Amino acid sequence: MFAVLTLIFLAALVGIIKPYVAALSRKQFAGIAVGTFILMMIVVPKSDQQTSNVDSNSADAATGTTPSNLQTDSTTSAHEDSPASKWQYSSDKDEMRGSTSRYATLISNNTVDLDFPYGEQQGTITVRRNSDGLNVMFGVGKGQIMCSSYTNTTISVKFDNGPIQKMRCTGASDGSNETAFFTNEGRVLAGLRKAKRTIIEAEFFHQGRQQFVFDTAGLEWK
Is the peptide bond before 67 cis (omega within 30 degrees of 0)? Predict the structure, then answer.
């Protein structure tokens, strides 16, 4: 395309000097030359850009480098393959003491049907760090979990396909039965960080042992 325009431009310049077509004047040849020159200026950048793209792609092929647009697609695909974390994070500040408590909370995939007056309940795992230290808790909205500080009570925990572990637990300091505290919180936290799936089995008052399944992948906790 550029070569054709160049020939037309040169022919128009010759016509300005000595018109060789009877029907065209020097002024008309000059108009053709100007118009052709403008078209040449438009075509040149496009040609350079196409050449640059070809050179860039050739260089990528020679060096084994993946083009940036393909790298972005590959990165996006990798993120899509990773399961999204279901953990929820929050914090609150103690204005009097100037300390901040951090929380990571996860709700179970399943519900269990407890007898009246409790009904269907989901389990919750809560990791908390405040000025008193680290706590890992298991709880339900309504129900009586059989854990206390004065008896040797345990909650069974299974991380992925590992063995069932019996974890000592204790009740809340206010005497409520909806929440149980793991006494070996560091051990439980280590398991939660590594496991993609965790099953917790706790005994409830007059309800027997109930199991709750959690997708624990992606816990971010320091």
Answer: no
